[in-house]
């Protein structure tokens, strides 16, 4: 699958200006005697990004068809690549054994309605100011301040200033005991331009800061009258 993805990076990117270079690169992948441009007539352009192995159909001990996913412009597509595999004194070797085929990618899945959990309004009110302080210092990287919001003995890495906390958009706190799994939607401020030490480069070249909304799942624990963060990770599907 890795071999097919490498091949796709060459095969799916072409223009008349790089025809000779593309042919030379493809020779490392295709079987001897095959068309060195693999069916391209030298005209037109195609560009592919986000190339990833997607699926494999093994037909026997030596042959398989690998499907590679890629993006071109606004479209997601698939590339089907027939591969031959051999072993021997020269080690494990692969070669493209036939014509590739571009195919439409499947449409996005239909997401069913998720059940909203019963929420604890009192705990939510208690948690919001704690979480705002946590995320503010989680973004800035102020380790001493961050420790005020996490459970004793817990050490969490931070963004160290890569983002700035803008707002806590929402919190979903299900009913439960002293330890809860909660979800928080946070808005980060993304810097609009990388800082420059050259005055001429910085003058007039900056772009506006952006805002990026993201969702997190946190394990929180109540100790006394305060809540503390024990763990943070991606939220998965947010239902609140």
Characteristics:
5 helices, Nuclear Transport Factor 2, Chain: A, Conjugal transfer protein, elongated, 240 residues, 2 domains, four-stranded antiparallel sheet, five-stranded antiparallel sheet, 9 strands, alpha+beta, TcpC
Q: TL;DR of this structure?
A:
By secondary structure, the protein is an alpha+beta fold.
Describe the fold and architecture.
With 240 residues, the protein is of the alpha+beta class. The protein folds into two domains: 2-104, Nuclear Transport Factor 2, Chain: A; 121-234, Nuclear Transport Factor 2, Chain: A (Roll). 19% of the residues lie in helices and 35% in strands. It has five helices and nine strands; from the N terminus they run ααβββββααββαββ. The protein has helices at 2-11, 19-26, 121-140, 143-146, 199-202; strands spanning 49-58, 63-72, 75-86, 93-96, 101-104, 164-172, 179-190, 210-223, 226-234. Strands 1, 2, 3, 4 and 5 form a five-stranded antiparallel beta sheet that branches. Strand 2 and strand 3 form a beta hairpin. It is elongated and about 75 Å long. The mean pLDDT is 91.
């Amino acid at each position: 699958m890795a071999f097919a993805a490498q091949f796709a990076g060459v095969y799916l990117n072409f223009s008349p200006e790089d025809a000779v270079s593309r042919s030379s690169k493809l020779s490392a992948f295709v079987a001897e005697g095959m068309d060195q441009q693999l069916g391209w007539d030298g005209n037109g352009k195609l560009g592919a990004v986000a190339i990833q192995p997607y699926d494999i159909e093994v037909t026997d001990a030596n042959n398989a068809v690998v499907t590679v996913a890629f993006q071109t412009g606004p479209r997601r597509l698939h590339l089907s690549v027939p591969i031959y595999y051999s072993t021997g004194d020269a080690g494990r070797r692969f070669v493209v054994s036939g014509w590739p085929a571009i195919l439409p990618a499947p449409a996005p899945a239909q997401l069913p309605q998720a059940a909203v959990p019963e929420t604890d309004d009192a705990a939510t009110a208690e948690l919001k100011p704690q979480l705002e302080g946590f995320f503010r210092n989680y973004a800035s990287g102020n380790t001493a301040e961050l420790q005020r919001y996490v459970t004793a003995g817990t050490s969490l890495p931070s963004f160290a200033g890569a983002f700035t906390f803008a707002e806590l958009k929402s919190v979903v706190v299900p009913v439960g005991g002293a330890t809860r799994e909660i979800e928080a939607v946070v808005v980060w401020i993304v810097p609009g331009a990388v800082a420059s030490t050259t005055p001429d480069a910085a003058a007039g070249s900056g772009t506006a800061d952006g805002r990026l909304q993201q969702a997190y799942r946190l394990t929180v624990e109540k100790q006394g009258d305060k809540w503390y963060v024990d763990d943070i990770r991606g939220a998965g599907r947010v239902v609140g």
